[in-house]
Amino acid sequence: MERPAWAPQGIDISVPSVSRMYDFYLGGSHNFEVDREAARKAMEFLPGLPKIMQANRAFMRRAVHYATHSGISQFLDIGSGIPTFGNVHEVAQAADPEARVVYVDHDPVAVAHSQAVLEGNERSMVAAADLRKPRDILDNPEIRGLLDLDKPVALLLVAVLHFIEDADDPYAAVAELREELAPGSLLILTHASYEGIPLSQEEAGGAVGVYRNIRNPLIMRSPAEISRFFEGYEMVEPGLVSMPDWRPESPEGRAQEDPFAFSGFAGVGRKA
Fold first, then answer.
1. What is the 3-state secondary structure (H, E, C) of 41-108?
2. Which residue, of 88, 113, 129, 215, has the fewest CB within 10 Å?
3. Full-prediction pTM beyond 0.90?
4. Lowest-confidence segment of 1-5, 23-27, 219-223 by average pLDDT
5. In this structure, what are the phi and psi dihedrals at residue 102, rounded to the nearest 5 degrees?
6. Which tens digits make up the pLDDT trace of 117-154?
7. Percent of the chain scoring above 70 in pLDDT
């Protein structure tokens, strides 16, 4: 397999990546055939995956708008993936040119592309780190140099927690991040779940099996399990809901959504 010029040296381009599969679902071009093959296989079981990802991105943009309108000008996006149109820094800095944005990902392709996209943007940066090691993020001098954690921050964990197995204790990692943030901070997250998918659990489970086979298990959690990530934070209305149901721009727009868009859950919590 020929290595594209944009692919960083040192990565194994024969192994699928969830961030590059996500890029493929969204119509991006920074993915390899191995990623496309895995994504197509998952779509055989769950054909609505692109619609789910589109709904996820639309929620993220609405939540960032909400944060900026709430007076928050600092954003920490962990598990940010490969940059696509309408990413956090574009939405936040369009509303507030002073907004500061830090992206964090452990995928070298995502980090490399973020660096290219952010070149010349002094109020945004990307760091290579893993959500499962929150201290590596919180103690990173470059991150601390751009973000003032003594002031409110919007922490985004969008479509990332369902790739953290229970054995890696995602609740402890999120708690450590939550506790470090100043009062007034927001936690913005989305999470996959069997609830809301317009298929049986057995049918949807085939797609879960594809992710398990590429050694990136997709952990489907219940609403009660997802709500635990917000412990100590007050949920912003309308609470933990399907992605299109979180403050839709118009009731008409919600009615026109594809049924698959209502798969999984989204929510925003505020630290008192």
1. HHHHHCCCHHHHHHHHHHHHHHHHHHHHHCCCCEEEEECCCCCCCCCHHHHHHHHCCCCEEEEEECCH
2. 215
3. yes
4. 1-5
5. -120, 125
6. 899 999 999 999 999 999 999 999 999 999 999 999 99
7. 94
Nearest to 194 by CA among 168, 166, 225, 173: 225
* pLDDT(256) > 90: no
The three-class DSSP label of residue 197 is coil
**Look-up of token digits 């309408």:** 86
Look at the alpha carbons of 94, 95, 101, 107 in this order and tell me if their dihedral is positive or negative: negative
DSSP state of 215: T
Q: Which of 268, 272, 59, 232 is nearest to 154 (CA)?
A: 268
Task: Give the pLDDT of residue 113.
Answer: 83
Taking the C-alpha atoms of residue 13 and residue 2, their distance in angstroms, rounded to an integer, is: 9
Contact 254, 245 (CB under 8 A): yes
**Which residues does 139 contact at the CB level (< 8 Å), separation at least 6?**
none
The DSSP 8-state label assigned to residue 236 in this structure reads P
Tell me the C-alpha distance between 117 and 189, whole Å: 23
Q: In angstroms, rounded to a whole number, what is the distance separating the alpha carbons of residues 201 and 220?
A: 10
Assigned token pair, 205: 């489970």
